[in-house]
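Supplementary Methods S3. Input chains for the assembly prediction are listed below.
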Amino acid sequence: MDQSTSRIVQQLKGLRGRDFLTLRDLEPREIEGLLDLAAALKAERGRGQLRRDLEGKTVALLFFKPSTRTRISFELAARELGAFTLYLNAQEMQLSRGESVEDTARVLARYVHAVVIRTFGHEQLERFAQWSSVPVINALTDSYHPAQVLADLLTLKERFGRLKGLRLAYVGDGNNVAHSLMIGGAKMGMHVVVSTPEAYRPDPEVTAAAAAIAASTGGSVVHEVDPRAAVQGAQAIYTDTWVSMGQEAEQEERLKAFAGYQVDGTLVAAAAEDAVVMHDLPAYKGKEIAADVFEGPRSVIFDQAENRLHAQKALLLAILGQ
Ligand code: CP
Ligand code: NVA
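Predicted structure tokens for the full assembly:
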């Protein structure tokens, strides 16, 4: 085991036993530490070295929505660290017949050492965390996707060597991914511009919270209706689906509302020369992103997907390690 990796784990001991729900309650230095740990674990894995710090621990993954990346990367992260994993489909549990979140949380906490949850309302995740005596980790709610953003910050840091002062333009729907990017970017002193149609702005409470955080880190978080103006000088252009899980009934009106917000070649050309293109996936090509941009040389999209594994390994190790 690498000495420097162990030292970073030690420095992160303040995260032991804690929940990971929004990124809002993490100090910038804790996020930096997680990114350093993720980079160290990525390098070790590249050399064929795997730490087994979580041997004897069990991590449950309770999912109310589908997932490819989040499920696979959390399961693999836990297993490569030596932990057991249990994938639990909420539709197959008594939760689907009305058993309460409070009771389910208390039962699971008697069996496992941490619960990773993907659900709808963020308040359901918070309620679960309140009743769980073991740490709860957000694997996406309707309001936040902080595990995604840890991987995104790692990807940007790899590309640019720093986060402070970087300009990121998010173009599309003011959704869970946008919210977490605003909070995570603000914590890291980045300049985040969110460009959405008026009716699809991010939650004003999250915008205000992110702007207040940015004021203390030298960053900024602003909204801009015009996507062309938003990407001026941007070093990263980020987009996400216009129709998130649970919004399928709104598909038609959303596709109309977001016309003009596609990340295409013209928009990318209006950004900084070294700008990267980001997407959390799954992508709907020809909708929020043009196929040639998705496949083009600016894309770091599959680096983001890979970094889910390394970032979440760092998170699990910090929360559950000795
Ligand atoms: N980006 C992301 O969270 O993907 P999944 O929905 O496949 O987990
Ligand atoms: N905003 C998307 C993210 C998918 C990973 C959704 O919630 O469906």
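The chain has 13 helices and nine strands. Residues 301-320 form the longest helix (20 residues).
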